[in-house]
Write a structure and sequence with these properties.
Blueprint: E1 4-7, E2 10-13, E3 18-24, E4 33-39, E5 46-52, E6 57-59, E7 67-72, E8 77-82, E9 91-98, E10 102-104, E11 108-113
Length: 114
């Protein structure tokens, strides 16, 4: 079992920035892929960003150029740097990690006020 714990969420004004962190209870070095989903109020869960073992990244179109996914293997941590936030980015953000099995965090709330 792998535990993931997100942090860094909060309330910010439109145009502001937040950096989410997700710490894993074990090494992420061998992870096949990792990433972030979000679920806004009344919306379905949406894949926001992914990072493969080889370092390739993918983003949903709505966040391209504004969000950056990264990792620090030495700290078993992945990050989501979010800039130029918009009200439509308001959601609960979940990190996930694939180690043959998908593991999920509990989520962190991001609220962007206009």
């Amino acid at each position: 079992q792998v535990m993931l714990e997100e942090s860094g969420g909060g309330m910010v004004q439109a145009g502001g920035s937040l950096k989410l962190s997700c710490v894993a209870s074990r090494s992420i070095y061998s992870a096949n892929r990792m990433g972030w989903y979000r679920q806004g109020p009344g919306k379905q869960r949406e894949l926001v960003a992914t990072l493969s073992r080889g370092g390739s990244t993918n983003y949903v179109d709505s966040v391209k150029g504004r969000f950056t996914i990264s990792r620090d293997v030495s700290k078993n941590t992945m990050f989501l740097q979010m800039s130029n936030l918009k009200s439509e980015d308001t959601a609960v953000y979940y990190c996930y990690l694939n180690l043959g099995v998908d593991y999920w965090g509990q989520g962190t709330q991001v609220t962007v006020s206009s």
